[in-house]
Amino acid sequence: LIYLSGYAFYSFYALLPGIYNSLTFSASQFRLTMSRADKSGIAAEAHAKIQSKYNCQLAEQILKWISDVSNQQDLNTDGSMENFINVLKDGTVLCRLANALQPGAIKKINDSKMAFKQMENINHFLNFAETVVGIPKTESFMTVDLYEAQDPNSVLICLSSVARKAEKFNKPSLGPKEAQGEKREWTEEQIRAGECVIGLQYGSNKGATQAGMNIGKSRHIILNE
């Protein structure tokens, strides 16, 4: 028993440096996140350009859609950038939206005030949006785009994409209806016939040609007598 206890203590002691480094890294990472310096110069201009793409009217429509679909009637649906970020920042509203579209999609929603727990909620929603809803990565966003308000417009793009695809979950959609793909099956005979067709990249004889041109011929001058 003494030997086993000593071995267990030694194993735990050996893991302490890794645990300490992990906690230290997480703490320093969040301190860096919360104390990010204000942008200046070209970076400030680029950030202002990104922020200018934000659409207050679309944000209000998105928040109202989330409120209706997920039955979160107490949601503040004001479309201002400040309210949009404050409502979605902790990720709980997004997680409830995911569970409204597909029950049980996110099993645990963190109600903690801790930063990494809130960012974990956002990551859960992003994973749901990409793997279950099927939005392309080009229409997704990074956690800091929402949590630090780095790019609220990219959050709008992502939620708009999710809203357009809501019909597949038997929920009301928002925005233009997406085109449905039409699957076709070809017989072997049709496939072989298609291989015999000469594509336009090989050229065409249906347009202008050089027929009747005299390039390269000698010029004959006939004098009238």
TrEMBL record:
Q: Which Pfam families match?
A: Calponin (PF00402), CH (PF00307)
Q: What does the entry give for GO biological process? A: actin filament organization
Which residue numbers delimit the Calponin-homology (CH) domain? 56-167
Q: State the source organism's domain of life.
A: Eukaryota
**Signal peptide as annotated in the record:** none
Q: Give this protein's Gene Ontology molecular function annotations.
A: actin filament binding
Listed SMART domains: CH
**GO CC list:** actin cytoskeleton
* Residue stretches in coiled coil: none
- Give the transmembrane region(s): none
Q: Which PANTHER family match?
A: CALPONIN, TRANSGELIN
Q: Which family does it belong to?
A: Belongs to the calponin family.
Protein name (Swiss-Prot/TrEMBL): Transgelin
Q: Which organism is it from?
A: Trichinella britovi
Q: What is the lineage of its organism?
A: Eukaryota, Metazoa, Ecdysozoa, Nematoda, Enoplea
